[in-house]
Write a structure and sequence with these properties.
This protein is mainly alpha-helical and 461 residues long. 63% of the residues lie in helices and 5% in strands.
Length: 461
């Protein structure tokens, strides 16, 4: 007999039972379900709704079930539909009548809502820790390549000289925003729906503030209808994870480009590469490609749940069962991608000579040449036109700006002097970009220090 079977006189169809069962995926909520039930039972006893003896039996029984689940001694069944009914059935079988009193002043609606918030709160902590690990790998690589000159790009065209450190640190900055977004999500998530009941609370004299405090929430949710039907926190987490995956995907795309023979800026470690079944020379960046591909999967989890939620009236509807597979899949995907990405970045071999060679072409010191003339007193727009004419002259004659003779330069503008060659050096162009956030060593040193400080703050926060 189902725990909810009093109203029914006919068994659920086997196919229908399997169709609506969620135990195959919500079984991962077992710890949170037990934690929530222990807190609920303590509150019930403290409020005089159940006896202290019943509460002690309930707590001991639940702790025993938790130990058995983690020891692999419990087999869940679809006959009990979900993790809540599986645990309650086990508890009642073990301790008898006291187990039947646990569900007083509670519904599965508020029970699943509190379980999911507890679980996602814990998962956010784990994901944040993994992002910090990736940031540490980025900081370590950046520290080794503050003087490694590479071309910075716009429109995938060589634009201005930067350091490899600055390029890496741009992703470090993006990941910092991911961490703070997740922390904001966790803060908004941290209200307790337990006590909302099915939708309208309860007639029992419960203390919702007590259960909220016992479970580490900031407060109980203020509206019982909202408490059981809200999944904003799931959508917000999926949105945050989608943005995180977008950052990883952009980084992965650059790694894929950098590994190609056309760039050859880096070489991935063999442990993070694969080969071809037919072409023996191939070394493929498959891990980066998979991360790029799995980004779409996480986007799909977000879009699927948004579509599920858009037409639901208050309060609880069975459609809300669809939230778990989506968010669990996204969490599992993100955690695996972060683990692989961190190892891939930590072990990659950087090829500074190839970066420097690429930076030598494409006239990426043209802006610095215009700045040189502007510092000599020529209005920047006029200096811009002058250097544009120089670039045209160079392309027609197969030369670089720094290869032009002083006579050739002065033929375009008499403001050029011998000091122009030092100004056009790529190392000078990069090293003199000392404006806040730039690629000069002073600035990348500051950025690395701030990134390390951020990592330490959030590791111990």
């Amino acid at each position: 007999m189902k725990l909810w079977g009093g109203r029914f006189r006919k068994e659920t169809d086997t196919l229908a039972n399997d169709f609506q069962s969620s135990i195959l995926f919500d079984c991962r909520l077992y710890r949170e379900d037990i934690e929530g039930s222990i807190a609920h039972s303590q509150m019930l006893a403290d409020c005089g709704i159940i006896s202290r003896e019943d509460q002690e039996q309930i707590k001991a029984g639940l702790e025993g079930i938790l130990a058995d689940i983690e020891a692999g001694k419990v087999e869940f069944t679809t006959d009990n539909e979900d993790i809540h009914m599986n645990v309650e059935t086990l508890l009642t079988a073990r301790i008898g009548e006291a187990g039947k009193r646990l569900h007083t002043a509670r519904s599965r609606n508020d029970q699943v809502a509190v379980d999911l918030r507890l679980h996602l709160r814990r998962e956010i902590g784990e994901i944040t820790g993994q992002i910090l690990d990736l940031q540490q790998a980025i900081a370590d690589q950046a520290g080794q390549h503050q003087e490694t000159v590479m071309p910075g790009y716009t429109h995938l065209q060589r634009a201005q000289p930067i350091s490899f450190a600055q390029h890496l640190l741009a992703y470090g900055a993006q990941l910092s925003r991911d961490v703070t977004r997740l922390e904001d999500c966790k803060r908004r998530m941290n209200i307790c729906p337990l006590g909302s009941g099915a939708l309208a609370g309860t007639t029992h004299p419960i203390d919702r503030w007590q259960t909220a405090k016992l479970l580490g929430f900031d407060a109980p949710c203020g509206n019982s209808l909202d408490g059981v039907s809200d999944r904003d926190y799931v959508l917000e987490l999926l949105s945050d994870l989608s943005i995180l995956m977008m950052h990883l995907s952009r980084f992965a795309e650059e790694i894929i480009l950098w590994c190609s023979w056309e760039f050859k800026f880096i070489e991935l470690d063999d442990a993070y590469s694969t080969g071809s079944s037919i072409m023996p020379q191939k070394k493929n960046p498959d891990m980066a490609e998979l991360i790029r591909g799995k980004t779409g999967r996480v986007y799909g989890d977000l879009m699927g749940l948004l579509a599920t939620m858009k037409g639901l009236p208050l309060a609880y509807n069975k459609d809300l069962q669809e939230d778990k597979e989506a968010v669990f899949d996204a969490i599992d995907t993100v955690k695996m991608c972060l683990l692989v990405f961190t190892g891939m970045i930590a072990t990659m071999r950087v090829l500074p000579q190839n970066m420097r060679k690429a930076a030598g072409g494409g006239f990426i010191n043209a802006t610095d040449c215009a700045d040189y003339l502007a510092k000599k007193g020529r209005p920047f727009r006029d200096a811009y036109t002058t250097v544009g004419n120089l670039v045209y002259y160079c392309t027609e004659n197969g030369k670089l700006l720094e290869e032009l003779s002083l006579a050739e330069l002065q033929n375009i503008s008499p403001l050029f002097g011998e000091d122009v060659y030092e100004a056009l050096s790529l190392e000078t162009c990069m090293g003199q970009r000392k404006s806040y956030g730039g690629p000069a060593m002073e600035e990348t040193t500051r950025q690395i220090e701030e990134l390390i400080k951020f990592i330490k703050e959030y590791r111990h926060g």
